[in-house]
Amino acid sequence: MARIIVFGGHGKVALLLAPVLVARGDEVTAVIRDPAQSDDVRAAGAVPAVFDMEREDRAAFAALIAGHDAVVWSAGAGGGSPERTHAVDFEAAVQSMDAARDAGVDRYVMVSYFGSSPEHGIPASDPFHAYAEAKAAADEYLRATSLDWTVLAPSRLTLGEATGRIDATAAVSGEVSRADVALVIAETLQQPATIRQTIRFNDGDRPIAEALAG
Question: For residues 118 and 132, is the Cβ–Cβ distance under 8 A?
Answer without folding.
Answer: no
